[in-house]
Amino acid sequence: QMSENAQQRKGRRSSGAGTRMKSNSKAKGAERWRSMSAEKQILPGYTRRIKETGRHGRWKDALSLLEELKSKGVRPNVFVVSALLSCLGKAPGGSRWKQALEVFKDMVRAGVELNTVTFNALI
Fold first, then answer.
1. pLDDT tens digits for 48-61?
2. What is the number of other CB atoms lying within 10 angstroms of the CB of residue 34?
3. Lesser CB count within 10 Å: N end or C end of the chain?
4. Cβ atoms 78, 114 nearer than 8 A
């Protein structure tokens, strides 16, 4: 036997509250994005670009992107570093382990917090 409230809910159509919640969360996400520093806003784009150059075997371009980022005064984050190390590890003609090790050392010196993904990319 259903309670009276359950019977009322069963017959009721959606009020669209879920839709309002989705657009609310999108607005909050956009607000969060605007409040982020310019530095944090450009890092995901650089990460994507480095991954893309890696997919196409252009490891030199990936290194150039890191230099470009640093020339803008932006400190790379763990995602940028991991993407670059992965790119260098999968370079056509064999791994560019020497360059990967140099990038790794530079990031450690710069104080970039590295994680398991970074260490796996280095291996």
1. 999 999 999 999 99
2. 8
3. N
4. yes
